[in-house]
Design a protein that fits this description.
homodimer, six-stranded mixed β-sheet, alpha/beta, six-stranded parallel β-sheet, NAD(P)-bd_dom_sf (chains A, B), Rossmann fold, threonine biosynthesis (chains A, B)
Chain lengths: ~325, ~325
């Protein structure tokens, strides 16, 4: 049986999740895809820190060693900032590797560029994990766009802040208490700026805009208001009125063709589809011409949801390669 | 450019929707897929009834004429009962045609058989439209199943009855008034038995069971309770208590491996994800091991939503055929 070698770049929560799933589903994936996947390299900053027992021999802190590995064909990337992630993936694609990324900061800025490069090199870019964690919004959108035009996308794209708003309402916690607990549970980064400022949701929104409209609004024109503008008292008043705060990201194509976006807290009543979306859940509503409004909802964060959609990206890529034998 | 010939079997609401979308999106589909699709035959019972101007020359009441057409390669089927639909599609597959069906009655009973036959003949079966109208639950499930195990599926699978329950609550209509209006709007069939008895939702549930678990529960063991057991007074009482009736279909794999199903009205409170799903909307929640619970929501009925997912099935099939050029 053919063996495909893969590398994991970045071995934090998501990187480790990929490793676990690939191990746990080894047999099933081999059976479904007809090929064996072997994790041959794991790129880390500190090779002395063996985070999963038995992986020491796979660790490297040198990206060149990854591509020097004979038979390397898939690169899973779970690093956080634009660089060096972009350069690594560019190098991967130039080495004819398929790439699967969870890096929204990089992808919001360089996603179209990577995809063009991938097309030129005959490889695929999987980026389901860049938006809404375990929610398959990218695949759903790609599928819809085969036939439909999309006019507007609206959603809760940040699980951390939705968790915080939920706890402020249900437990009466202050903003600070909710943030501390989100950090303790690993939802929020040590530096929570990107989550609470709305920048994280903004980056995901830009990835969706690229896909739905082929372009993004000018970043400077997108109003981005964080959840840090909402106090415990605001939440209390809203709850008494039967309303809930949601942090909503929205991008639409106006009648004049212009793409406009916005990220801001929104008060919703119980008739609103985002009303029951609590905890770390994300929800994305897509307005289309033929189908109407489609909504996908699910866990927006966490090791396994995010890692799972990355392995699904890999499986989809391999499925495409396996092709389809029929004469038309 | 290669031309692919297609037939539409059945030219009611959904069949006409397919014809309209294929015309409206002709350019876009040609550009995306690299092939031209031509509707070459339309199978109807009465060829003297030209439902869309300009289609008279395409109409036939003889299935053999469909397959006698040179270059016929895709069959869209939008007929309602098991036969003759199954025989037609079997014949189509044996003639190496891809088939795309919206026929849940047939597919609940013969779906696995058709898929096996298709595999043997190197063609594809698209059946997104058999379940939940415009909601892409089949594609979402297929994608999830590449990596995840599914334990339970729960949802509103019948748009007609959800519309009726919504109107009974919002307008204070009786069951009979709601049914009449559903019929007037074309949501309910002239014979509404399948909708209100729960048989329609049951058939869709069986299609989902086949896909998620590879098998169905014994049909006789599935409890199916219709919405006709709910009176206007029941709805009024529920509304006063802040609750809503939903008609819910559910199938799960028990700990002992047994697959069990149920279709019945359910009272849900405002914290329940199905609470805000009103009108003809469907919603399907899928419990998985890695991702957690994913929910997809959208219009469960109507000409364009259903026809749109059928054309998406076609586009997906052609996309697979076009293949993927890379050496691994």
């Amino acid at each position: 049986m053919a063996v495909i070698k893969a590398a994991i770049l970045g071995f934090g929560t998501v990187g480790q999740g990929i490793y676990h799933i690939l191990n746990e589903k080894r047999e099933a994936l081999r059976e479904k895809l007809g090929v064996e996947l072997e994790v041959a390299k794991i790129l880390v900053r500190d090779t002395s820190n063996e985070r999963i027992p038995g992986t020491q021999h796979l660790l490297t802190d040198n990206i060149d060693e990854v591509f020097a590995e004979k038979g390397m064909q898939v690169v899973f990337e779970a690093i956080v900032n634009e660089e060096p992630a972009f350069s690594y993936l560019k190098q991967a694609i130039e080495n004819k590797c398929h790439v699967v990324t969870a890096n929204k900061v990089m992808f919001a800025k360089r996603g179209l560029e990577l995809q063009t490069l991938a097309k030129q090199n005959g490889v695929f870019v999987g980026y389901e994990a860049t938006v809404a964690g375990g929610v398959p919004v990218i695949k759903t959108l790609k599928n819809i766009l085969l036939v439909n035009d999309v006019s507007c996308i609206q959603g809760i794209l940040n699980g951390t802040t939705n968790y915080m708003l939920t706890k402020m309402r249900k437990e009466g916690w202050s903003f600070e208490e909710a943030l501390l607990e989100a950090q303790r549970l690993g939802y929020a980064e040590a530096d929570p700026y990107n989550d609470i400022s709305g920048q994280d949701a903004f980056k995901k929104l830009m990835v969706l805009s690229d896909l739905a409209f082929g372009e993004q609004p000018a970043w400077a024109e997108v109003e981005v208001i964080g959840v840090d503008t909402i106090s415990a008292e605001d939440v209390k008043v809203a709850t008494e009125q039967g309303m809930r705060y949601r942090h909503v990201a929205e991008v639409e194509r106006q009648a004049d063709g212009k793409i406009v976006g916005k990220v801001a807290p929104m008060l919703v009543d119980r008739e609103h589809p985002l009303f029951p979306i609590d905890d770390v859940f994300n929800a994305v509503a897509i307005d289309t011409n033929y189908i109407g409004t489609l909504t996908v909802t699910g866990p927006g964060a966490g090791m396994y949801p995010t890692a799972s959609v990355m392995v699904e990206d890999y499986a989809e890529i391999i499925g495409k390669r396996a092709g389809f034998v029929v004469t038309i």
